[in-house]
């Protein structure tokens, strides 16, 4: 299973991972996107500045947004209940614009672990977690997460007890999931801000756990 955070052997001298040159022929959909975008600008429906502003807003989204939601749920029982009942409204309550997306929060407990996948493509709660990791979009993860989820989790360093229930949730274009990981022990005196620093991106997908305090 590929891990985008374990690519230490493929770093350039600057310390950044090597990427293939993006100079190949445009796909059909890329060509269509450019044509429609230029047509909308030409018709006055959008301006280049509006398009760039939206791109900047999308690029600014990161797992820190989701971590703030998780930390709030760890410290506010009433908010946690609202999050589990209606993830979309709870996220909006914290000021995160998730659009029309139906967000479902699933809670990890002492006897249940949740894992998120999109078997069709790469549906992902980008509004809260930013761009999905490269491995999340691979055919290998999308198939194996359903077929052999415990083996996949072991490759991410998560070993579940044999008697723990493992639930795999398949995201769709209309419904996205976020895992509410179990709060680490020994964090009773931490603030929500400090707790958010313990929440990892992978823990909100289910392929990882929060950091130890």
UniProtKB/TrEMBL annotation:
Annotated binding of Fe(3+), by residue: 118, 121-123
Gene Ontology molecular functions: nitrile hydratase activity; transition metal ion binding
Keywords attached to this entry: Iron, Lyase, Metal-binding
Region (Disordered) location: 1-23
Compositionally biased intervals (Basic and acidic residues): 1-11
Domain of life: Bacteria
Stored InterPro entries: CN_Hdrase_a/SCN_Hdrase_g_sf, CN_Hdrtase_a/SCN_Hdrlase_g, CN_Hdrtase_asu/SCN_Hdrlase_gsu, Nitrile_hydratase_asu
EC number, as in UniProt: 4.2.1.84
Domain Nitrile hydratase alpha/Thiocyanate hydrolase gamma intervals: 29-207
Transmembrane segments: none
One Pfam family this sequence matches: NHase_alpha
SUPFAM superfamilies per the UniProt record, alphabetical: Nitrile hydratase alpha chain
The keyword Iron belongs to this UniProt entry's keyword annotation: yes
UniProt KW Repeat keyword: no
Catalysed reaction equations from the record: an aliphatic primary amide = an aliphatic nitrile + H2O
Protein family membership: Belongs to the nitrile hydratase subunit alpha family.
The protein's name: nitrile hydratase
Lineage of source species: Bacteria, Pseudomonadati, Pseudomonadota, Alphaproteobacteria, Rhodobacterales
